[in-house]
Amino acid sequence: MEKRVTLAAGALALTVIGLMPVLMIVASTFYVAGEFSLTTYQALLASSKQLAPLMGRSVLLSLSVTLLAMMVGTPLGVLLGKTDLPLRGAFTMLVTLPLLLPPYVIAVAWFAVLGSTGWIGRFLAPTTSEFLSSAFFGFYGCIGALSTAFMPVVMLLTIAYLGTVNPRLEQAGLLMSRWPSVLWGITLPLIARAILFAAVLVFLLTLGEVGVPTFLRYPVYPVEILTQFAAFYDFSAATAAAIPMLIITAVILVLEIRLLHTSALELSAATIGRRNAPIELGRWRFPLFGLALVWTLVMVALPIAELIVQSASLSAFADAFSRASDSILRSVVFAAIGATLLTLLGFFCGYLIHNRTLPLWRSIDALALFLFTLPGTVIGIGLISLWNRPITNAIYATPAIIILGYLAQYAVLPTRMTAATLQRIPPSLEQAAQLCGASWFMTLRHIVAPLAKRGLIGAWIIAYIFCLRDLGITLVVYPPGFDTLPVRILTLMANGAPSLIAALCVILIAVTLLPFFVGALWQTRAGRPP
Amino acid sequence: MKKNLWVVLLVLAGVAAAAWWRFHVPSETQSVVVYVSHDEVFSEPILRDFEKETGIRVRAVYDTEETKSTGAMNRLMAEKNNPQADVYWANEPIRAEVLRQQHIAAPYLSLNADGIPARFRDPQGYWTGFAARARVLIVHKDENPKPTSVFSYADPRWRGRTVIANPLFGTTTDQIAALFVLLGDDRARAFMQGLHENGVKLSPSNGDSADLVARGQFAFSLVDSDDVVNRMKQHEPVTMIYPDQGADEIGSLIVPNAAVLIAGSPHQDAGKKLIDYLLSKETERKLAFSDAAQIPLHPDVATPPGLQPIESIKIMTVDYAAIATKLQAIQSFLKSWAES
Questions:
Q1: Cβ of B221 under 8 Å from any chain A Cβ?
Q2: Which residue has the higher pLDDT, B22 or A96?
Q3: CB contact under 8 A, A491 and B77
Q4: Cross-strand bridge partners of residue A396
Q5: DSSP per position, B50-67
Q6: Average per-residue pLDDT for chain B
Q7: Mutation for B interface: A142, A491, A500, A504, most B CBs within 10 A
Q8: Nearest CA in chain A to B102
């Protein structure tokens, strides 16, 4: 009983925190001046001629980014997760770095490289520099920045799911053929659903992205929603304009679940037997190492190094700390609180999905994923609609509103990580404890939690990183005087000195990676591989 | 023992977070909440000085160019029935006027507004202007002869060689709305059509327009005076021309910042003190001699190098309230014009 009530409470919490704001904004579009009306949708239909090309651009950009991320991310994932390539761990960490940063920071960093005074731009002839700059500001720049930011999603999921492939199947294949054929004929088809899931994630994340297209002056549909707010002060119209985004997101997720006939979670089956030894690359080892090195240097190290060089002065860091020390502290505290609550909520939702204790487990799984793929601004607007009332000022006028935003958008991360962790714990242990008379909470405390400790710490770190880098929700809802570092960077970008912006970006990277390194250090000291 | 240590650490962390939370939410009487559309890099030092001088803590929400500088405005409108802000520091008076029309602004006549010309203030005190920008032409130095009017945009001499910021946003919207008020709808629409026929290009912002002219890609553009001053400080080959300064011409549109008291806000007294501070001569001086390069409206505050004193500029005679009304009326036209 206590188990069902607790898990139902977790599910209810996610529904209230995440779904209610979305329902509020959908409902608000049907009311004009307090009366039921369809005028906002009539206006939306009337402007469909202007909106359709923008949606077309959004879809084209999302498809291009997804394609590029798949083309690079999948082979890179195989290379780093399955072979004896030197320095695989270092490569994985470096290539993952852009995913941990707000995408607009990547765009800013690339602009620092390609701009007329950047490392590359300054050595080019003015006409070439001009051409490069104009190509960067637009479709191609968006593809470059967003592919760099989201490619790690494909790569990491590929690495993760390669570890779940039954090694006996590959061994059987190796009896008949060599690794390339086994990879192509057995391994990749087995994880194809995971790669498709990664592609869906990248597509939806790109579809909802506002910061990069705005910075690079490429008009896409979410920017048009922002325009509705910005130019017309028309909340109903802007919210109605967001509805097609909601529909597309929901349809794609439903299609994904239908096509796969399963939740993507089910792909993460526990490893069966010993994993195969890494594929020996032989004479391809160093050419492929060189290729991975070039990709990492060009796509990750170069732009971040440019930021570091731009910020490399004491005065820039002194200015950055004097302007943003409060924001840095707030970012860390909010992210730590958000990550702790997310881990708690994610634990119960993940347990529910893993154990299928309640019939609505699949809905909770889908809801968490749906909220993750929604643009942060949409969730933010929903939070304002729901909580902006005198009676709820204790939430709306305090950082609690930011924490609620984190819980709504990022619940899927600890939920999925918990569910994956729980799959590795034999159910017989819980059953044995129950037979001995232990209550469910006692079982959780003395058996499940200790065994899942590593996974839960990992979930906390990932949740912390995503809370810390959040911009979409925080920008819309942060209470006065409670801005975070990503928001502060964005607002200072208007006429702020490039060295100041670069220094703040470097601080953001350092603060984001801090628990990652602490965790790695802890694991190393505990005698486990990082 | 080890488990107990974790519990103690967790409790201590919770207590520390609660204490931090409690003491970072200031008491109601010791703070003021301001939403700011002016660039943070220039406005934040002013607000910090206010904190130092009065002991009143300022809690600010800054706007960003990412949201076309209207994020704060939209928050104010969303929070109309439950206002969180006490003061809105707008970077132009049209938005302030929209707030008055939507009953979000409250009247306040500050004594520090004495000396600011009446044309830059709402007579009932719903908003008060200070520290202005002028709408000017940025012209490439190689251009000869140089344009002298906004109507040069329609002059065949500069066909395909001019650029203007998207008129859906910012001060360019104000400029076009002002032309609609001054010329009447028919003549203004004909002028806008003339821009299309003369191959005027659109850029995302005034800053982009200024950069395009500085790089020699276009002959001139209509931008804000601070955009030109900053390019001139960087020794870009551009010059600033105040348009339509002839005796029978319409003059240059002046766009002051505006301070607005928010109706029903929680800290009205502190809000009034902040408005007094913003309207002071000292604030105008700081904004004039920083990189913000604003034109002081108090007659006895010095004008920074590169700019003309407000008294020496032929100012477009136009009612900001009328511009605000017209701006909302022509948005659909501007949207179709920008997309055509």
A1: no
A2: A96
A3: no
A4: none
A5: HHHHH-PEEEEEE--GGG
A6: 89
A7: A491
A8: A233
Residues in chain A: 530
**Does residue A517 surpass a pLDDT of 60?**
yes
- Do residue A230 and residue B40 have CB atoms under 8 angstroms apart? no
Tell me if A214 and B21 make a contact (CB, 8 A cut-off): no
Is the separation of the CB atoms in A414 and A377 below 8 Å?
A: no
Q: Which of A131-135, A208-212, A350-354, B271-275 has the highest mean pLDDT?
A: B271-275
pLDDT mean over A186-213: 85
Q: Does residue B51 sit at the A interface (CB-CB below 8 Å)?
A: no
ipTM over 0.90: no
Q: Which carries the bigger pLDDT value, residue A337 or residue A3?
A: A337
CB-based contact A50 B339, cutoff 8 Å: yes
Count of helices and strands (H, E) across chain B = 12, 10
Amino acid identity of residue A236, one-letter, is S
Hey, what amino acid is at A325? S
Longest CA span, chain B: 89
**Among A231, A388, A493, beta carbon nearest to B82:** A388
Q: What is the chain A residue with the closest CA to B58?
A: A481
A196 compared with B2, residue with greater pLDDT:
A196
**pLDDT tens digits along A429-487:** 888 888 888 888 888 888 888 888 888 888 898 899 889 988 888 988 899 989 999 98
Question: Which string of DSSP letters, residue by residue, matches B81-130?
Answer: TS---SEEEESSHHHHHHHHHTT-EE----GGGTTS-GGGB-TTSS-EEE
Which of A217, A476, A481 comes nearest B59 by C-beta? A481
Structure-token pair, residue A365? 């799984």
pLDDT one-digit tens code per residue, B289-305: 988 899 999 998 999 98
Cβ atoms B93, B120 nearer than 8 A: yes
CA A270 to chain centre: 24
Q: Cis before residue A426, ω within 30 degrees of 0?
A: no
User: What CA–CA distance (Å, rounded) separates A484 from A333?
Assistant: 10
